[in-house]
Specification:
- There is one protein chain.
- With 215 residues, the protein is an alpha/beta fold.
- The protein is built from six helices and four strands; from the N terminus they run E-H-H-H-E-E-H-H-H-E.
- A four-stranded parallel β-sheet has the order 1-4-2-3, sandwiched between helices.
- The protein starts with a strand and ends in a 6-residue tail after the last strand.
Amino acid sequence: MNVICVCLDTFRADIIGPGKQFSHIQTPNLDAFAAESVRFRQAYGEGQPTLQIRRGLFTGMRSFPWRFNFDRRGHWHHAAGWHKIPPEQDTIAEVLLERGYLTALIADTYHMFKPTMNFSRGFAHLDFVRGQESDNWRSGDPRLIEDQLRQHVREPIKWQRHAGLINYLLNQRHRRSEDDYSCACVFRAACDWLDDNYTVGPFFLWIDSFDPHEP
């Protein structure tokens, strides 16, 4: 059996769809997928922030309430539960790899790739799509994106206050069309991987998109 998991960050399923808060948002592909799927209406993660929930999904181990104090060198931020996968906890990728699965992680969720975080353990194939949020990827003079920045912030510009947004806009200077958005790059890379590997089997593919997370 092949396994494909798609994880979307900060996706609010409770506000998209008929009669919901953002029902004007068009999601035809998700709607079609949901119509052919089993849907769980009362399934909740133990901790919602990015790394907390992924650690639970990867290991099946509960860590809430956050009663542990792990080394956080090499990454930020320092909120409770925002830490690496402990070395003594097996990940689903490690378990499946040992059982003969080809394992792959294709993601733009940059927190997972920070040093010492251990979220890449067990994956034979890694594809890190760079540039989301405050990923320290492409530096540059902030004046290079001043015109774009003015579209999103009030005047006068308080440069220090908008450091994260400036970082993101510098990362995304190459973007020209919808195909250049990070989420599009992630799913295109996943499709390319499937084209090359769907006959290998069995495989475990984890596709992880940071969108629709801000900014």
